[in-house]
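STRUCTURE:
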């Protein structure tokens, strides 16, 4: 029984790591597509599609955090972090639609930094949140 619980924690932890990595990558690609907004005719379309993908990645992060926590018995802390990212992503989308770059751009930079931090923290800790 103990081996099964341990395997579940590892699977949840791996899924969580993949979700955080995907989120971090999509936020970075949003920065790239924001630059294309200034230089290419397709930049706006790419940035708009990327926003939807980034938002989906944030929702996947929440799902992965819940699955790593509830059935696997991991720490609930990633659920709070993932939920916070989803709130930030929602604010980011609203600011983008409203064309408020003075807040939209710095928030994007903050989100990327926080996502990299979450990824590094998850990589540096074990499946239950213990430092390796």
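SEQUENCE:
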């Amino acid at each position: 029984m103990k081996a099964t619980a341990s395997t579940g924690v590892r699977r949840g932890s791996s899924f969580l790591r993949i979700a955080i990595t995907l989120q971090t990558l999509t936020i970075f690609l949003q920065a790239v597509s924001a630059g294309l907004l200034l230089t290419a005719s397709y930049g706006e379309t790419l940035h708009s599609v990327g926003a939807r993908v980034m938002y989906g990645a944030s929702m996947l992060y929440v799902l992965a955090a819940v699955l790593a926590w509830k059935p696997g018995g991991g720490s609930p802390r990633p659920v709070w972090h993932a939920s916070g990212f989803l709130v930030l992503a929602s604010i980011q989308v609203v600011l983008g639609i409203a064309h408020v770059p003075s807040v939209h751009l710095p928030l994007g930079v903050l989100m990327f930094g926080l996502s990299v931090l979450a990824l590094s923290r998850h990589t540096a800790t074990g499946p239950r949140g213990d430092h390796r």
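REMARK: Residues 95 and 102 are 9 Å apart (CA to CA).
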